[in-house]
Structures are given as structure tokens and as C-alpha cells.
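Quick log. Single chain, no ligands specified.
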Amino acid sequence: MIDTGRIEALAAAARPLEPDAGARAALMKAVAAHAERFLESLPERSTYHGSSGGVPPVFVEEPGTIERALAHVAEHIEEALAALAEAVGALEAE
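-> predicted structure:
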């Protein structure tokens, strides 16, 4: 049986962890500034060292869409990071 009281208590306890609109805007501004600094540094950096981990490079002649880029990040980067985090958590639990 679902313990709705427990769910409500957990939701109330989690509410302070969720940033409000102003805090989210500040976080997004910081992330955007970080991304801009990173992008501005690319002309001075060596940015491609060959494909690794069996992930094919995504180089095309024409610019792609943001949706395609984000899907690539989700599939090849976020999934790998999630798997790494899960593995680290399992090691820490031992």
C-alpha cells in the first residue's frame, strides 16, 4: 500500500532543496558564463584527439540542430557519466 503521508513528508522535506525562480536564473547565468568561457577558449585548445570509447565522431559538413547536439550529449556523455556515478556509488557502498 502507498504511504501517502510519507510521500507528502518527503515532498515537504525536499521543497527547500528546489531553488526558486531567482536562484534558478542565477544558476543558469553561471552555467551560461562557464559555457561561454569554454567556447571562447576553443580556438586556443586542441579539441579533437580522435574518437574514444567507440563513440563515432559527429562531424558533418552542415551545421546541425540544437536538438541533435543535445541528443548526442545525452546519449554519449550523460549516459556514460550516469554509469560512472553508479559504479562509484557501488564501490563506495562496499
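The mean pLDDT is 82.
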